[in-house]
Amino acid sequence: MIRRLAHRGHGASPVDLSTQVGSVRLPSPVMTASGTAGHGDELARYVDLAGLGAVVVKSLAADPWPGNPAPRVHETPAGMLNSVGLQGPGVPAWLDHELPPLLRTGARVVASIWGTSIDDYGRAAQALADAPAEVIAVEVNVSCPNHHDRDRMFAHSPASTAAAMEAASACGRPLWAKLSPNVTDLVAIAAAAWEAGAEAVTLINTVMGLALDPETRRPRLGGKGGGLSGPAIHPVAVRAVYDVHAALPDLPIIGVGGVARGVDAVELLLAGANAVQVGTATFADPRAVGRVSDELASWCRAHDVRSLGDVIGGAHDR
Length: 318
Fold this sequence. Notes:
Layout: E1 19-21, E2 24-26, E3 30-32, E4 55-56, E5 73-76, E6 79-82, H1 91-103, E7 109-113, H2 118-127, E8 135-141, H3 158-168, E9 175-178, H4 186-195, E10 200-203, E11 207-209, E12 212-213, E13 218-219, E14 226-229, H5 234-247, E15 253-256, H6 262-271, E16 275-278, H7 281-284, H8 288-302
Parallel strand pairs: 3-16, 4-7, 7-8, 8-9, 9-10, 10-15, 15-16
Antiparallel strand pairs: 1-2, 5-6, 6-14, 11-14, 12-13
Helix pairs in contact: 2-3, 3-4, 5-6, 6-8
């Protein structure tokens, strides 16, 4: 049964959950997170995708990519370590085969792209230039820890982040820069992305981690290290959003990291996020993104919040 999103209770005042992310207006601040909802309509049997702010699909390269060797996922206390390695069909195949059924659900779509070079970002973006109008934005993933190592990750350098964003402008759509928490000065990198054309930043990607098997004395994942996600990183995400909003209050932010309940979304909004994404929680409960949306609306009604503008950035001194 599909979970229909309900933002109005019996006898309760309606809550305006619409939000603005740069030039993009969303009817809800709750979206899926890239890498956790597949490339297409995989969650459609569980959630009314048209009722979400948007569906952010798994990151795509210009060409097909096989990803990392198995095993790719390891459960950790309060989270998950993954080393999937950005496996995907490539942008052209996605446009032909995966996007059409997703669009038939009525969803607004945010494509996500990645590359191993600046040219790769440009080619992936160019391939999206003629995508349908329902692809409302492109999230530029410059921060995947289970493919790029620390020295090669674009999001660890303001200059390389800016170069990737400039190349991605070939898509002709609003750009969101997905950034890494594994840096010493996230504000500087967010500022560089913004100056290079990003309309918003997505904070955060997974935290770099490693799990070892005491019996084999070897890494548990085929790609050795990977990205930690889930409730364990939620405070890291809240801090990142809070710090970037404090330094760059006019820069729109999408908060992501350990959102499993409506109150988790509220925390990120209070820290300064304009919207939120739900990721790892969907592996345990594919209805999670719809439930978070419903719980957020319930929290707003319970606290006499009529619109998100009364919440966004509310934790900061005025």
